Amino acid sequence: MDEVILRSERLTKSFGKFIAIDNIDLKFKSGIITSIIGPNGAGKTTAINLLTGALHPDKGKVFFKDKDITSLTPDQSVKHGITRSFQIMNIFPMLTVLQNVELPLLSLLGKNLKWFYAVSRYRDVAEEAEKILRELSLWDKRNKVAGELSHGDQRALEMGMAIAPKPEMCFLDEPSSGTNPLERASILELIKRLAEEGSTTFVIIEHDMDVVFSLSDWTIVMNKGKVLAEGEPDEIRQNKEVVEIYLGEEV
Known about the structure:
Blueprint: E1 4-15, E2 18-29, E3 34-37, H1 44-52, E4 59-64, E5 67-68, H2 74-79, E6 82-84, H3 97-107, H4 123-135, H5 151-163, E7 169-173, H6 181-197, E8 201-205, H7 209-215, E9 218-223, E10 226-231, H8 233-237, H9 240-247
Parallel strand pairs: 3-8, 3-9, 6-7, 7-8
Antiparallel strand pairs: 1-2, 1-4, 4-5, 9-10
Helix pairs in contact: 3-4, 3-5
């Protein structure tokens, strides 16, 4: 699939005198895994915050399937089919692993925490939660308090929460951070499979270049709030300006 599912026009965001995002146009194609890379302070996370409703731009527009979603809140974005994970862990540490995944599924039905005790009334929710946790190798830990999981398992759980609502588009902020090689491979394999099935379009912020170049179909490089370059992984590897500013000896 090649159609553009989400795009921005002249997106701009400042914090005081600091220009975090400087008049950028972004395009994300359906079914394509896109990575956003760049040095610290390049504006990567701010861009995702603007695209998912966590922040609103000073100027510019965001369009999802040609509908203006610039003013949507994060919960409204989820209902439109856009979810995300965070660089800083964002799970419910006092709830069980199973409840963490059930919560976003129940929220799509307009239900909240009190409905955990009646989740048996929603067999589709229970079955989908089980499917997700099995895919993430977390089913055996379903009754464990989420805050007691290893860092890698918490990362996997957070991703499970992001994909639970079956989003059309999912933004992942450093999904492999803090994971061991086995956990990382499991998460990357799940991302690849979901993308290949065409059910979810992924956009990933990642510092691990092995992950970026093995997973991405398209890479956007940001620097100082602007798009420095974009292209297929091989193009980015060979871009002298990108190598000089960011990649260096990692290539």
